[in-house]
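Justification of computing resources. Each target in the renewal requires a structure prediction run like the one illustrated here; the chain below, 105 residues long, is used simply to show the kind of job we budget for.
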Amino acid sequence: VMSGGDMTTAQLFQQVALLRWLSSQTDEDRRVLVAMTGIQVGRELLKRITGQDKVDAYKRACILSIAEFVHQNPRASQAQINAEVEKRVLDFAAQVKALETAPLF
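Resulting structure tokens:
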């Protein structure tokens, strides 16, 4: 989990592997560094191919926008809330659908 400019756990492990290899230059440490770097690259490619990071961001934005609507409209009827939720979920679905045609990189 990242906060601000912090490294993910996987990035930290990769940097530790790099530091070990830089200080030792052993084949074993080189293999560990290659494996850790491969994991990082594979993980990033999977995120880009699936668009999961964007889907998660769209989902958070959808939920926050619904919560904001409810907060700003405390007297809204259940029908109004339902209509707003449906509208925001349809917007979310359209954003996710657009990812299917978006370039990977």
